[in-house]
Amino acid sequence: MLNSSIYDDLRQAAEVHRQVRKHAQTYIKPGIKLVDLCKRLEAKNRELLEAEGFKRGIAFPTGCSLNHVAAHYTPNYGDNTVLSQNDVMKIDFGSQINGRIIDCAFTVAFNPMFDNLLQTVKDATNAGIKFAGIDARLSEIGEVIQEVMEAGEVEINGKVFKIKCVANLNGHSIGPYQIHAGKTVPIV
In whole angstroms, what is the distance from residue 135 CA to residue 172 CA? Predict the structure, then answer.
């Protein structure tokens, strides 16, 4: 049986993650430099976690990937990239306590032409969650997600595009102090 302190660590890290996300959504707006966004988000994460070395803190550098960059882009100091009205940005950050990591990503877009894309992503995520269960194969969960995603379309500047999943970008299990551990939910 799992130790109850593990659950407490996960619950606390999840609550911090929720609060940081809510806080970040107040200042993620066109015109912000990506590096400033990441610094601010990570500072709030550390503050709420009461960061203490490897015991409590951010789980990994914040990702803020724009447009065709699907994931895992972190700006370096001196990077002057600015979020614009027509960008689609994926934010990925993590909180950890005693190595118990909470990892979550979300997407923001400010131009209404991307509303259908964001809704399709939500629908696909919810379909995967609904299908998941003790007897569900990970590949089957991935198939359900992919089916919903690729049934969607997005109109950009008057041209309609079918939504495609990104090859080799998977859901994944998480282990103590290990962000990508063992199992994956394959797409494509």
Answer: 17
**Residue whose structure tokens are 């032409």:** 113
Distance between CA atoms of 137 and 158, rounded to whole angstroms?
39
Residue 31 · residue 82 · CB < 8 Å: yes
Coil vs helix vs strand at 99? coil
CA–CA gap between residue 170 and residue 173 (Å, rounded): 10
Which pLDDT score is estimated for 2?
Answer: 60
Per-residue pLDDT of 2-55, as tens digits, reads 678 999 999 999 999 999 999 999 999 999 999 999 999 999 999 999 888 889
- Predicted local distance difference test score (pLDDT) of residue 168: 80
| Cβ atoms of 79 and 91 closer than 8 Å | no
Contact 40, 20 (CB under 8 A): no
pLDDT above 70 coverage of the chain, percent: 98
Let me know: does 67 contact 87? Beta carbons within 8 Å. yes
62, two tokens: 């914040």
Tokens of residue 188, six digits: 């494509």
The amino acid present at 10, given as its one-letter code, is L
160 alpha carbon, distance to own chain's centre? 26
3-class SS at 52?
strand
Diameter of the chain measured on Cα atoms: 56
Alpha carbons 107 and 114: distance in angstroms, whole number = 11
Phi, psi of 151 (to 5 degrees): -85, -15
